[in-house]
């Protein structure tokens, strides 16, 4: 027989292997909001939870732990309940009963699974169950276009699920928090997907239109063979590509790229540029210090760069690097562990 455990708190989706960092972020967010509870996460499960001791503290935690505010979260949702012991012959009934007890309507429902080995095995179940649940919620008048929140049903096993909800404007707009991107024809390396995702996740539509205008100028440190440069060139932005390695020949034929065979740590442009890009493999605090120096010297308006994280104390290293950037007077910092990142995070910086 299925059992329902009502919950209050937050549910995060993340890359498997980074549950500890998600839990640390949740604990820090709760501390900043002045609320008490506990974080929990299973290794390589692709999820982390923070369970509140007092459900009345939910609004304070929600405000402090939204998707955009967290580095390691692909998605951040308000917890509703955990349902265990679902009968494979009738998963629908107990879930509808759990939702009926809340007496809430939802704008939409997404049926998801963690991005873990065990979670991906549930993809077929999620695909087949989603239309059944959606139809049942419509019959029960639990779906309404003007409802403030979207319902998320996250199967953690064939007989277990987490229920969560979030306002669409405050949540990642992709199921599982993963934007599905196709490798673009003509791009010289798969690293181009990291920058494409960064521009999609860290900037909104208006910002992309305003800050990625034809005729702008960029510097790409550690550019070869040109995966990040390609994203700028496709937007008619001129790029100085700094790398001792070879650049993609077709990219050089665009006429928008100047290749400088120089040390990325030493190169400086003669005039300030609109964008600084950097995907060099180096200690994260050294990259953070370099980016801070460019801003302190007024050499760029905006930057997008990756910080390669150590195997241990990754959350501590992120905090240290972001501190270096804030000390340089960078007021607008947006940081995400993207789907196309691995042992790294991506940072957008702009002097606010």
TrEMBL record:
GO MF, any single term: S-adenosylmethionine-dependent methyltransferase activity
EC number: 2.1.1.186
Enzyme kind, highest EC tier: transferase
Domain of life from the UniProt record: Bacteria
Domain Ribosomal RNA methyltransferase FtsJ: 189-282
Keyword S-adenosyl-L-methionine among record annotations: yes
Listed GO biological process terms: methylation; rRNA processing
Occurrences of domain Ribosomal RNA large subunit methyltransferase M THUMP-like (ranges): 90-162
A GO CC term assigned to this protein in UniProt: cytoplasm
Catalytic reaction annotation: cytidine(2498) in 23S rRNA + S-adenosyl-L-methionine = 2'-O-methylcytidine(2498) in 23S rRNA + S-adenosyl-L-homocysteine + H(+)
Positions of the RlmM ferredoxin-like domain: 11-77
Record-annotated active site: 308
Quaternary assembly: Monomer.
The family this protein is said to belong to: Belongs to the class I-like SAM-binding methyltransferase superfamily. RNA methyltransferase RlmE family. RlmM subfamily.
Official protein name in the record: Ribosomal RNA large subunit methyltransferase M
Species the sequence originates in: Mizugakiibacter sediminis
């Amino acid at each position: 027989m299925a059992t329902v455990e009502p919950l209050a708190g937050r549910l995060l989706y993340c890359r498997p292997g980074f549950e500890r960092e998600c839990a640390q972020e949740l604990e820090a967010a709760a501390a900043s909001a002045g609320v008490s509870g506990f974080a929990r996460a299973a290794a390589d499960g692709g999820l982390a939870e923070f369970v509140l001791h007092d459900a009345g503290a939910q609004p304070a935690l929600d405000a402090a732990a939204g998707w955009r505010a967290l580095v390691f979260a692909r998605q951040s949702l308000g917890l509703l309940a955990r349902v265990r012991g679902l009968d494979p012959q009738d998963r629908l009934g107990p879930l509808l009963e759990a939702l009926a007890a809340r007496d809430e309507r939802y704008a939409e429902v997404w049926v998801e699974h963690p991005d873990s080995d065990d979670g991906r095995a549930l993809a077929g179940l999620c695909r087949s169950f989603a239309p059944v649940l959606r139809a049942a919620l419509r019959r029960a008048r639990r779906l309404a276009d003007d409802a403030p929140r979207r319902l998320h049903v996250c199967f953690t096993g064939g007989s277990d699920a987490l229920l969560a909800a979030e306002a669409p404007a405050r949540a990642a707009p992709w199921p599982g928090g993963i934007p599905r991107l196709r490798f673009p024809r003509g791009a010289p390396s798969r690293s181009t997907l990291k920058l494409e995702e960064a521009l999609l996740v860290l900037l909104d539509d208006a910002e992309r239109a305003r800050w990625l205008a034809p005729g702008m100028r960029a510097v790409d440190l550690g550019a070869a063979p040109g995966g990040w440069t390609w994203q700028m060139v496709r937007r008619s932005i001129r790029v100085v590509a700094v790398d001792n390695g070879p650049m993609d020949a077709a990219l050089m034929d665009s006429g928008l790229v100047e290749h400088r065979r120089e040390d990325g740590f030493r190169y400086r442009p003669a005039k300030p540029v609109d964008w600084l890009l950097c995907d060099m493999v180096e200690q994260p605090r050294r990259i953070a210090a370099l980016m801070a120096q460019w801003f302190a010297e007024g050499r760029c308006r905006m930057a997008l760069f990756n910080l390669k994280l150590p195997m241990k104390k990754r959350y501590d290293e992120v905090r240290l690097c972001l501190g270096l950037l804030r000390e340089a007077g960078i007021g607008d910092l947006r940081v995400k562990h993207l789907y196309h990142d691995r042992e790294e995070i991506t940072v957008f910086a702009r002097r606010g």
